[in-house]
Amino acid sequence: MLSLGAFAYSLDLYSVYPTDSEKSTLGCSRDSLEQDVVIKLVDKGTMEEQIYHYLAGCKDLYGSEAFPCVLPPTAIIASPYEFTFVAMPMWGTMTKITDFNTVREIVAYIRCTLTGLAFLHDHRIAHRDIHEWNIMVNWYCRHDRLDSCTQRLHDHYSSSSVSYAFIDFDGALQLPPTTSLKDCRRPADEALLRVPTYHPFDVCQGERHYNPFAFDVACLGNLFLFYFTEAIPAVPILAVLFSRMTTHVIDDRFTAAEALAFFREVEAQLSPHDLDTNITLKTDYDPLDNPDLYWSRLLPEIQVRFQLNRPPPLTWTSRVLRWLNTTRLGRKVVTLFRRSLCI
């Protein structure tokens, strides 16, 4: 049994992992210390199993220092069957991001998720399946529909002990430690394998290859845009962060570590008054496709100040290629054309 610092266990009781499906690979239990855990069945010989074994050897995940916001295994148990048991601390799912009420709550979410992604990428693990359901909160409740649980969760969002962490590596990929985060290339078809909710347009122009690390950053940036566009007037520099994470010019896109370093500078400049500013969030997919929608929320003088960080307009060739790729025939034609020219 691996030893975890107290920070890695939930502080209260919120929504338990869904385990009522006949096809579920998750189950709830308790360890020898009477701490709630989740046990996942992981197929042997898979990349997912390899990643869990690797994470089990990462001392940073089990120390008493700052938690790197990736939920670690507490035990990996072999079986005589074609699967391995992986035990993890019980954390909460179904974080209701639109219930965040202040800049402070948004800042905590952004900080934790950027920390987790930077940690994964530093160990050359591309998550490749970034969405809300794969980000946990350190609080859960067996009776999540009770008003008392809902209120306690809201209180936890704004507390100093709140933490969020990445889970679920069944779509992840770990590459050699010398792999370049900027120049990594993988077959473009791999980008289409997981939930596409926040996918950027990195492989929508007939590309033969893509960078899974840059892809991860854009997915997380698109999640931020979907939920946090309403926070931009209160914290204008968030527009720069979101732009540099999601720009279609992939070479100009932040790495996860760069985004985290930038955000730490942003957070350090926020006063207690800034952090306590009330925000009413609403979700919107349109800013993911049109940066002008969130840049227009800035005052004109601020837009001028940050202009160099604004994504450039799409070229007409990119627009045509994206349009052609909306049909199966068009995608085949564009892909064959690019392959014939080796571009």
Overview of this protein structure:
The chain is built from twelve helices and ten strands. The chain has helices at 47-56, 103-122, 147-157, 212-228, 238-246, 256-268, 272-275, 286-289, 292-295, 300-305, 316-324, 328-341; strands spanning 26-30, 36-43, 75-77, 83-89, 125-126, 135-137, 164-166, 173-174, 186-187, 209-210. The strands form four sheets. The chain has a four-stranded antiparallel β-sheet, covered by helices on one side. A two-stranded antiparallel sheet has the order 5-8. A two-stranded antiparallel sheet has the order 6-7. α2 (103-122) runs antiparallel to α4 (212-228). The N and C termini lie far apart (50 Å). Residues 1-7 and 9-22 have low confidence and may be disordered.
Number of strands: 10
Biggest beta sheet attributes = 4 strands, antiparallel
Binned, the helix content reads 25-40%
How large is the count of helical segments? 12
If you average the pLDDT, what whole number results? 87
SSE topology:
Blueprint: E1 26-30, E2 36-43, H1 47-56, E3 75-77, E4 83-89, H2 103-122, E5 125-126, E6 135-137, H3 147-157, E7 164-166, E8 173-174, E9 186-187, E10 209-210, H4 212-228, H5 238-246, H6 256-268, H7 272-275, H8 286-289, H9 292-295, H10 300-305, H11 316-324, H12 328-341
Antiparallel strand pairs: 1-2, 2-4, 3-4, 5-8, 6-7, 9-10
Helix pairs in contact: 2-4, 2-6, 4-5, 5-6
